[in-house]
Amino acid sequence: MALLRDSLVAAGPGDVRTYLQSGNVVVQSQLRTHAQVPHLVRTAIAADFSLDIPVITRRPAEIDGLIAANPFSAYVALRPHLIRVIFLEAVPSKEGIDRLTAVEDIRDTCRVIGNHV
């Protein structure tokens, strides 16, 4: 992930840190608007790696809200390494949510809340 971090530092959004080998990046940006961040990141990735991939961003307050609203908070103390959040670009359709929650193996361990799973 060092190459990704270096690419984004060169693009100039501010302080850049990568998270493990996940492709997740934490950026403390000096850009004027939040909407500029995903555009800058996507443009840098396209230029440096020849990949056109969606970039989904969340502000710190949004992450804090997710943590506070965690429907599985009782599990966090027992097995914190098993708690995951998937960020979506948009709120999924009712049909998509129904398909996901129809899978018996995950029905009791998965929730769709807004544009997060």
Radius of gyration: 16 Å
Tally the beta strands: 2
The helix/strand series, from N terminus to C terminus, equals HEEHHHH
Number of helices: 5
Instruction: Give the fraction of residues assigned to helices.
Output: 40-55%
Note the overall shape: globular
Which regions are unreliable across 5 or more consecutive residues at pLDDT < 50? none
Strand content: 5-15%
Number of domains: 2
Distance between the amino and carboxyl termini: 25 Å
Main β-sheet description: 2 strands, antiparallel
Class from helix and strand fractions: alpha+beta
Can you give the mean pLDDT?
Answer: 86
Instruction: For the largest sheet, list the strands in their spatial order.
Output: 1-2
Supply database-style keywords.
5 helices, globular, 2 domains, alpha+beta, 117 residues, 2 strands, single chain, two-stranded antiparallel sheet
Descriptive account of the structure:
There is one protein chain. The chain is an alpha+beta fold. It folds into two domains: 2-49, no CATH class; 60-101, no CATH class. It is 40% helix and 10% strand. It contains five helices and two strands, in the order αββαααα. It has helices at 2-11, 36-49, 60-68, 73-78, 94-101; strands at 14-19, 24-29. The protein has a two-stranded antiparallel sheet with strand order 1-2. Helix 1 (2-11) crosses helix 2. The longest helix has 14 residues, at 36-49. The protein is globular and about 45 Å long. The two termini are 25 Å apart.
